[in-house]
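User: I'll paste a sequence; please echo it back and then give the predicted structure.

Assistant: Echoing your sequence first, then the prediction.
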Amino acid sequence: MSDILVVADETWVLNDVRAALSEPRYTLHEIADPREVTGRIETTLPDAVVVDMQIGSMGGMAITRAVRDAGAVGGVAAPPIILLLDRDADAFLAGRSGAVAWVRKPFSAYELRAAIDGALERSSA
């Protein structure tokens, strides 16, 4: 069982993530306000975080960096972050931000599950 924190403010993105991760092995925690991410990570301790690249005032890159920085300051390893990209060209930015995986929207259930499962495997190794 994996706890996944989903950070998105668009209903269609949340619906696609819910549909893709509707298996019993995933427990989803959702938030729409990017400013709440680091606090929610401290309380829910998710195994991975899925972040929409286009969200609120921060954006996916800023959220990824904030999560990584908070983990470094708190002494606890930050959970792996999977970004949901709008364009293939955003893959470069995703890698620079510190995301461990990314998929382009619209994504298939298989693509998202493979990205999450791969990220979880790498983080447990």
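DSSP finds five helices and five strands in the chain. The two ends are 17 Å apart (CA to CA).
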